[in-house]
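Schema walkthrough. Field components (list of strings):
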Amino acid sequence: MTVLAGIGFNAPWLLLGLLALPILWLILRAVPPAPARRLFPGVTLLLGLKDDESVSDRTPWWLLLLRMLAVAAVIVGLAGPVLNPRQDKDGSGPLLIVLDASWAGATRWPDKVELIASQLAQAGRAGRPVAVLRLTAPEAPVFQAADVWRSRLAGLTPEAWQPAQIGDVLAALDSVEGGFDSHWLGDGLDYDGRDRVLEALEARGAVQVFQGASVILGLSPARFDQGALQLTVQRSATGPAREVTLLVHGRDPAGTARILASVPARFDAGSDIATTALSLPAELRGRITRFDIQGQRSAGAMSLADDSLRRREVALIAGREDREGLQLLSPLHYLRQALVPTAELLDGALADLLPANPDVVVLADIATLSSAEEAALTEWIEAGGMLLRFAGPRLAASDVSRSEEHPLMPVRLRSGGRSVGGAMSWGEPKTLAPFPETSPFNGLTIPSDVRVTAQVMAQPDPTLADRVIAALGDGTPLVTRKALGQGQVVLFHITANAEWSTLPLSGLFVEMLERLAVSSSAKPPEAADLQGTTWTPVQVLNGFGDLHDAGTLPGVDGPALAEAPAGPDLQPGIYDSGKRRLARNVLGADDRLVAADWPAHVSVQGLGIRLEVPLGGGLLSLALVLLVLDVVASLALSGRLGMGGAVLILALLIAQPMTGRAQQTQADTDFAITATSELVLAHVLTGNAQLDDIAQAGLLGLADTLFFRTSVEPSTPIGVDLERDELAFFPLLYWPITPDQPQPSAAAYARLNTYLRSGGMILFDTRDSDIARFGAASPNGRKLQQLAAPLDIPPLEPLPKDHVLTRTFYLLQDFPGRHNSHDVWVEAAPPDAELAEGMPFRNLNDGVTPVVIGGNDWAGAWATDRNGRPLLPIGRGFAGERQRELAYRFGVNLVMHVLTGNYKSDQVHVPALLDRLGQ
Amino acid sequence: MTPTPTLRERSESEASRLPPLLARAEHLAGTVLLGEHGRRRAGLGDDFWQYRPAQIGDSKRLIDHRRSARGDMQFVREREWQIAQSVMLWVDQGASMRFASDDALPTKADRARLLALAIAILLVRGGERIGLTGTSLPPRRGNPQILRLAESFAIDSDADYAPPEHRAMIPHARALFLSDFLGDMAEVTTALTKAADRGVRGVLLQVLDPSEELFPFRGRTIFQSVGGSVSHETLKAGDLRDRYLQRLAARKDELTQLCRATGWRLGLHHTNDSAQSALLWLYRALDRGAR
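Field assembly_structure (string):
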């Protein structure tokens, strides 16, 4: 390829043709334009007139220029110009394209695919065999022609993990014999074993690395801290300050996926971590499905939500269970009201509830527990549980935690408690003091009307000050807390009902409970927690961060799920074990993004290649356009083309590509007008010409019968193509079944379902009830099952004796076609449909059955030729004709049923109406 | 379907040509009669001839109400020219007349036939005898003659430029020649001289297409007559314009001189002008010639 002025030419010698242009210019100027022939009666007056000059009108210079341009465009176009030509620098031999193919490259994957395509094109021109090796899914490289790989480009996708099986990669490389050059498209992240792969490649030939310069962002799993979602974003390289937006995806109450919230996170200059906190209502939080970074499209830039965000289980246990009926006085009433919206409440005895491992246990005014209960409770708290206790008359009267601190109490109590602001006491009811900064309640606003009239008093202890997380205005503790093992014990020094204070009546109570419940959220599981469990993948991520069904992937061992690196055997995604659900994210909580660092001797190029753009086609098209303009201009010059003509030709040229669509629209409109200008019966085109003809003839016969006997006057039936035609125009679709008809497409099924839901009816006819009963016994029956599987068909039942179809026009009990089987199925009546008193029929479905299924070959019985003669014989003699008549009657009933709905069902009310009329 | 039109179809299409021309001619004639209201003037020689019952086809204005008011029947008062006037028409049927420079314009032949037929209708209503020059259709009176005229106008001549028909001219009759007069002038001179010799006076109406007056052509052009017998090629049509217009003016001048010498009147009509004004001019010109 020769390069001239940045443009390469495949056939540069053709450009010499441009030298001929000036000669062509002279020739074109010398040759006069072709004469115009005109009729002109006044020619007699012209005879004998001579031209003054022998030179004719010259072709105008701009027309000449137009022609010159066209010729030049042809010459240059044929010379094969290529913009951004690539110079083949490296020689021949096999080429191995190595891809990291990890999630880190997913966001810029299209650039990589383009780069690979250009390299393949280049290798194809050089005749080099090519192999592609994905490090995340290593397979032994197979060197093939570049064109073969080009067709497989679309199938190359990144995986949701980093290259892990370096041993497999090295083995795959070892399996190749001979040397090869390598092009390594890196994703920009470091991983173990990269240097070993590089060594192995360099041992075989030259290595060229291509790596984008963009910074890779990753999102660590979200966690709860301080009652808020803590989100951490990492970047692979530090740089200037940058702000990214984190999106919280979830389902709205209707179950539709949408973005629940978005929150900015800011990288400070020189920092590679940005954190942000997001406070969401518990209800909203429970519906979060995943977080991701706006503008990034990779599995690492998202994190999936799992059980750690789920609703907590709270066990409520109270004394005084004997007092029935005093609901508002129940110690648990306000707790229940406060917790029901955000938590799962468990009721029962403490011994029964602890094995269920609730997140929180609430003891309302329970002073003493049995030693077994106490031991179990202590064990549960130490394993991370949270005990929430409320005071009350019993606790105040008991000796619990009096002389020394009880393990399940945060403080020692004075005996008796105190009462302030009552009728028999001095002083005013106390208000709450502002929450200290160390308190989990810090930041909550205290309503002014919260009053405390009685409380249990804490004994002053050295540790007391640390344990108070809420206090009254006079400094006496209101809420105290202590840690016990991994869990904690919290004591409200008041009752859980409104006897001792108005706090349970206020919104503050709910907020305080929420703060406490949030801080008791499930922690990320440790490997030890998962010992002995097996987790099955439900949905797994691909490198782009799209969830898709896990299919038949095997389950993984619990500890491996927590600790092992992600790979083909442990794909990031959502895993289930029993009722528990865990999300395995691409990035763990401790993972850090490290940028790949290449040795100095390896040459690294950016991804930003300029693609080769062949210009020949465009130039030749330009030449064609110029020649068309030349034709128009020449015609206009010689006066053979009026202005209108020129406009018309140009308009035609412009409008040419659009006529096809216009015709399509026109055809659609014609179809719609034909189908709606009159009532039209329709049948589904099966692709079997004979069957379609019979169906058409059958519906024609039925239409004639309807025309003669009823006020329904259908026009010529139409065969509809499910793939193309709109169905909404037809009240009834007749669908004959043949084993070899094609399965409709998904779009066609969508239309069919819309049709059924909006009141359409399909009459399925397997046409084989002479040899088979209803079901999968015949090929037609099996085909019907296949065809109808994606359809939205309600439960069916054999047509009951009192179905409205038996009396919409004629009174019928049989529904024969060419065959006389009683197996006709319609939508089942609802279970509560009742027999009307004294009437032979029930008040059945309030609507039209969407399907009628049978095998009596009705169309065959209805089919007539143009003169009204039956096409197909039925039975023998008069009995056969009688059967045909009944078949027509069934058809009439069916169409009447479709058109009038359950109108005839209303006859069930006739006795009542007659009664009311006094007859 | 037969590939060629059957005889009946052809005859129907031929016949369909007549009524429109006739109807348009009647229509055109009607607009003129409205203003003139007959020729009932002293000195014209029209006297009462007879009353006859009105027939279908008689115009309402021909009814004599004074006579009709005496009974239940309607009568038409017919007058008789004491000196029968004959008007002979010659309409150029040559190919050169079948030319229109624009689809929106009528051909010259169409306009000439329309004018001829309209003036014939007017003259027949006035009681004149109408015919064609030559022997094909001698002057006669009455409505059927109109039909015969229309019929003969439908025949096209193959010749490119038809020479004026000057045979069988009735002495002291009047004549009306409609043509573009772009053919051989000698023929016209011969015809008019012969007519003048026989005491025939009349009107020449030159019917021209606007393009023949303007010569709006440019570039290398081959001009052809409609019949294809004459052609002329030029390299620069634009340069010919002035000289063509000079020749056209000379041709008109020649015609004027000829008319002055023979006592005829010369009119010029363009096909993009209204036919009615031409008809009015023709009517008055013939009228004056009769006086």
